[in-house]
Task: structure prediction
Amino acid sequence: MQFNPASYGSPSLAVERNRVLRNTYALLALTMIPTAIGALAGIQMQFQMSGLMGFLVFMAVSFGAFWAINKNKNSAMGVVLLLAYTGFMGLWLSQILQFALRFSNGAQLIATAAVGTSAIFFTLATIATVTKKDFSFLGKFLFIGLVIGLLAMVANMFFAIPALSLAISAAFVLIFSLYILYDVSNIVNGGETNYITATLNLYLDVYNLFISLLNILMAFTGNRD
Result:
């Protein structure tokens, strides 16, 4: 069987993949606006919905949003639904931000987590884009790790073990960092061709990475004085 160079990495395919990647990054940047608005609104309202009930509400809204966004991923409505969902995610984020702001250095912790998240994202996204290496082999490992992490998180709602909470956050930092590598690689190598669903995937990676980093920073460097 002869290798046909036109069948792989053709200029038209490369242009299309670059277009998807550019649109994904642009939309990802845009999602930060409703996220910030939702977070500020939640802080002002002192929004709180934690525990098992909060977890169930969050999962129900999230899975409903995933279904609706995927259903409309080829239309402008998909963008509207994605932005609406990120506003909800900002509202949910306000709960941990409120907790962080109870520390005297809370604003610094939040800023450090944001800088750390940005540094990890840009580093791994650059690696995936420049090397064009296929990281799809990580998919099964990451999914299993995510499921185990979620189950551990639910269990810790009942046991409330600080060490377990810290271990879960550390594991999620690794998992969602690798998910950034996996998801960007998926776009670069043509596995993901829709920029709306690609943005949703990367948004969730960044969002969960930020929360995990913030949890670790609060545990180790939070100042209650």
